[in-house]
Design goal:
The complex is a heterodimer of chains A (334) and B (285).
Chain A: E1 27-29, H1 31-40, E2 46-50, H2 60-65, E3 70-72, H3 77-89, E4 93-99, H4 100-106, H5 108-116, E5 123-127, H6 144-149, E6 155-157, H7 162-174, E7 179-183, E8 187-189, E9 205-208, E10 213-217, H8 220-233, E11 239-243, E12 246-248, H9 252-259, E13 265-273, H10 278-288, E14 295-301, H11 311-317, H12 322-333
Parallel strand pairs in A: 2-3, 2-4, 4-5, 5-7, 6-7, 10-11, 10-13, 13-14
Antiparallel strand pairs in A: 1-8, 6-12, 9-11
Chain B: H1 3-26, H2 31-48, E1 63-66, H3 72-81, H4 122-135, E2 142-147, H5 154-165, E3 171-177, E4 180-181, E5 184-185, H6 186-189, H7 195-201, E6 205-210, H8 214-226, E7 233-238, H9 246-249, H10 263-273, H11 276-281
Parallel strand pairs in B: 1-2, 2-3, 3-7, 6-7
Antiparallel strand pairs in B: 4-5
The chains are: A alpha/beta (334), B alpha/beta (285).
Chain lengths: 334, 285
C-alpha cells in the first residue's frame, strides 16, 4: 500500500519468466516450441536437446510431443554442444537449447571446435538474449553475438517477435550448417504481422521509410524502433526502420542500399553491447563500401556489467526503452 | 603364443614401425605416446572394430574417435595397418597439403571421425553419437580413445555422467594412462587416482589392464564388447611411453619426447631386431 510519501510502487526484479511485452500488447505463446513441434512432423531427423532448461526455452513442448526425440543432457553445456555435434555427425538435426549466457560463454570451445569447425547441422537456440532479464549479469547475454560472430561459418539470427521466430525455425532447419539463434520465450510480442514482411534467412527488410533517420535494428529493438518511429512521427521526424534479423552473414547489400545517397542519420539499435554486435558490423560494412551517412550512432547496451532490477527500469536506464530510444534519436538529430 | 596373438603382435610391430618412420619424416612427433598406444591400436584395428577399409564411412562401422588428436601419428599408423590409408602416403605426414596433418582433422583424413587438438571433447561427442546410433537402431559401437591428461577436463566427467545416465551400452572409452602430461607426471599435475573407483562411481563398467600386454588388452576389448549390462564401459590401459624402443622408454619422461636425428633409424633397427619373424620375411623399408 502506498503512503502519502511514496510516489510510485517499487518494481521488483524481473526474473527468468518476465515478458518484454508491454501492457495490452498482442502476444503469442511459445512460438519457438510450437514451431518446432509443427516442423518435427515432417522432419523425422530433427531432435531436441537441452542443458536442464527445456521448460525455460519452450523446448518442453517438443519434449512432450516427441519424448523419444528429446534428450536431456543435464546442466552440462559443454556436453550439450559436443553431444549435439555428435548427433549431427550421425545425420540428425539437433535443436540445442539453454540460456544464451551459458550456451555461449561456457561452451564456446565446443561450439567452435566440435560444431563449427566441422560445419555440423546443429541449431543452437538460446533464450534470455541481451537484457531480457533483471536477474543480473550472470543471466544477461550482452555479448553473445560478439562472441558468435567470431566463429567462421556460423549463421546468427536475432528475431524480433513471434512471427520472426515462427518463420525462422523451418528456415534455419532447412539451412545446411550450424546456426545460433536468440530466442524469446513464453508470451512473445507479435508485431511484424502488421507490416508487409516475411522472415527470410540472410535478408534485411525495410519495414518503413523516413527522411530524417534510418534505424538499423535486430531482435526486439526493431519493435522498439517501430514504436519510437510512431512517437517521433508526431514530432514530424521521419524514421526509416531496416530490420536486420540475420547478423551473420550480414545483408551488406541491403544496408549499403539503405544508407547510400540518403542524407540522414543512421542509428543502429540492438539488444546487445555496443561492442562487437550489429552496430560495429554495420560500421565495418559502411566503411568498406565507402558509404558515409550524415551521422552514425549506436543505441545498444553499454560496455558494462548491467544492473539487477525490473526490466522496465533497466531498459529506461540503458536507453533501450521506447521512450528512451525516441529521446536519444531526437537528441542525435540535434 | 597362439596364431591370433602372433598376428596382433605383428600388427603392433608394424604400427610402431610406421609411427617411427613418420616421426623421422617430421624430425619430431609424439612418438613416445605412439609407441605406448600401439598395442591397443593393434587390437582395435585388427580385431575389435567392425570396419570396411575401402568404405571408411560405411554406416555400419564401429566409430573410433581420436579424442587425443596429438596421437595422430599413432592413429595414421593404425589406419595404414588397417588398409584405410596407403603406406605410400606415410612420407607426407605433417607436410603442407597432406592428408595426414600433425593434429587429427576430420576433414583431412579418411577414417578420422573427429577433429582433435582441444582435448577433453571426444567423450562428449561420443555420447551424442551413441545416443544417435541407438535412436537410429544402429548396433555399431562408439569407441572414444583418450589420454590420461584429458581426465583433468570437466567435460570428460560431464560426458561420463551423461553416458551412464543414458545407459549407453554402445559406448566404450579407452584411456591411455602413461602418467605423463605437458607439465610433468600426472600425479604431480592433477592427480586422478583412484581412477577405476571414479569411473565405477560414475556408473561405468571398468577394467584396468596393462596396456602393453597384448593378451590382457585383447581380453579387455572382448569383455567390454560382450558385456550385456545397460551401461557404458571403460578400459583403463596402463602403458609405457616409448614402449618397444628401450632407449626411448628410459629417456627422461617428456610429453613431447626428444629424438635426435640418427635415433630414428636406431629405433627402427631395435624394433626389427625384436621381431625375428619380420626380419625373416625381409625387413620393411
Amino acid at each position: 500500500m502506498n503512503t502519502v510519501t511514496d510516489k510510485k510502487p517499487r518494481l521488483t526484479t524481473s526474473a527468468m519468466i518476465a515478458s518484454i511485452a508491454s501492457e495490452g500488447q498482442r502476444v503469442k505463446a511459445a512460438p519457438f516450441g510450437k514451431a518446432l513441434v509443427e516442423l518435427a512432423a515432417t522432419r523425422p531427423d530433427i531432435v531436441g536437446m537441452t542443458a536442464d532448461l527445456a521448460k525455460y526455452t519452450d523446448l518442453h513442448l517438443f519434449g512432450q510431443a516427441y519424448p523419444e526425440r528429446f534428450f536431456q543432457m543435464g546442466m552440462a553445456e559443454q556436453l550439450l554442444m559436443a553431444a549435439a555435434g555428435g548427433m549431427a555427425k550421425e545425420g540428425l538435426v539437433p535443436f540445442a537449447t539453454t540460456y544464451a549466457v551459458f550456451g555461449t560463454r561456457r561452451a564456446y570451445d565446443f561450439i567452435h571446435q566440435v560444431i563449427a569447425e566441422e560445419n555440423l547441422d546443429v541449431k543452437i537456440c538460446c533464450a534470455l538474449p541481451g537484457l531480457t532479464t533483471g536477474y543480473g549479469p550472470s543471466h544477461q547475454a550482452t555479448e553473445d553475438i560478439a562472441m558468435m560472430r567470431g566463429i567462421p561459418g556460423l549463421t546468427i539470427v536475432d528475431p524480433c517477435d513471434a512471427l520472426d521466430i515462427e518463420q525462422a525455425v523451418p528456415q534455419i532447419a532447412a539451412h545446411k550448417g550450424p546456426v545460433y539463434m536468440r530466442l524469446l520465450r513464453g508470451n512473445v510480442p507479435l508485431v511484424l504481422d502488421e507490416y508487409d514482411y516475411r522472415f527470410e534467412l540472410g535478408k534485411a527488410k525495410l519495414l518503413r521509410d523516413g527522411a530524417d533517420v534510418l534505424v538499423i535494428s535486430s531482435g526486439f529493438m526493431t519493435m522498439r524502433a517501430l514504436e519510437a518511429a510512431q512517437d517521433l512521427a508526431a514530432d514530424k521526424v521521419g524514421v526509416a526502420v531496416l530490420h536486420c534479423p540475420t547478423i551473420k552473414p550480414l545483408d551488406e547489400a541491403a544496408i549499403v542500399e539503405a544508407v547510400k545517397y540518403k542524407h540522414r542519420l543512421v542509428v543502429v539499435a540492438e539488444n546487445h553491447s555496443v561492442v562487437g554486435g550489429l552496430g560495429e558490423a554495420v560500421a565495418s560494412t559502411l566503411l568498406r563500401h565507402r558509404v558515409q551517412p550524415a551521422g552514425f550512432q549506436l543505441a545498444g547496451l553499454p560496455d558494462a556489467f548491467l544492473d539487477a532490477g525490473a526490466l522496465p527500469t533497466l531498459h529506461e536506464r540503458y536507453g533501450i526503452s521506447r521512450e528512451a530510444l525516441a529521446r536519444r534519436i531526437k537528441g542525435w538529430l540535434g | 603364443m597362439n596364431q591370433q596373438l602372433q598376428d596382433l603382435a605383428q600388427a603392433a610391430y608394424r604400427i610402431r614401425r610406421y609411427a617411427v618412420r613418420m616421426g623421422e619424416v617430421q624430425g619430431q612427433g609424439y612418438i613416445g605416446q605412439a609407441l605406448g598406444w600401439a598395442d591397443v591400436l593393434a587390437v582395435a584395428y585388427r580385431h575389435a572394430l567392425n570396419l570396411r577399409p575401402d568404405e571408411p564411412e560405411w554406416e555400419g562401422r564401429d566409430r573410433f574417435l581420436l579424442s587425443h588428436g596429438h596421437y595422430a601419428i599413432a592413429f595414421y599408423a593404425a589406419l595404414i595397418e588397417a588398409g584405410i590409408i596407403p603406406e605410400s602416403e606415410l612420407e607426407s605426414y605433417g607436410s603442407d597439403d597432406s592428408r595426414l596433418p600433425m593434429s587429427g582433422m576430420a576433414a583431412y583424413t579418411p577414417g578420422m571421425e573427429i577433429s582433435g587438438g582441444s582435448l577433453g571433447q571426444g567423450l562428449a561427442i561420443a555420447v551424442g553419437m551413441a545416443l544417435a546410433l541407438r535412436h537410429k537402431q544402429n548396433p555399431a559401437f562408439v569407441y572414444n580413445s583418450m589420454s590420461d591428461g584429458e581426465l583433468d577436463e570437466g567435460s570428460t566427467w560431464e560426458a561420463a555422467m551423461g553416458a551412464a545416465h543414458h545407459r549407453l551400452a554402445n559406448l566404450i572409452c579407452l584411456v591411455d594412462i602413461n602418467n605423463q602430461q605437458a607439465d610433468g607426471p600426472s600425479g604431480k599435475v592433477l592427480g586422478f587416482e583412484p581412477l577405476a573407483d571414479k569411473w565405477a562411481a560414475f556408473g561405468w563398467h571398468v577394467q584396468r589392464v596393462a596396456g602393453n600386454d597384448l593378451p590382457a588388452v585383447l581380453k579387455a576389448f572382448d569383455a567390454a564388447r560382450a558385456l550385456t549390462d545397460a551401461k557404458p564401459r571403460v578400459i583403463l590401459f596402463d602403458t609405457l611411453m616409448g614402449k618397444g624402443v628401450p632407449f626411448l622408454e628410459q629417456r627422461e619422461k617428456n610429453h613431447f619426447i626428444r629424438v635426435d636425428p640418427p635415433e630414428w633409424q636406431q629405433a627402427l633397427a631395435i624394433l626389427d631386431a625384436s621381431n625375428p619373424s619380420a626380419a625373416r620375411e625381409g625387413a620393411l623399408a
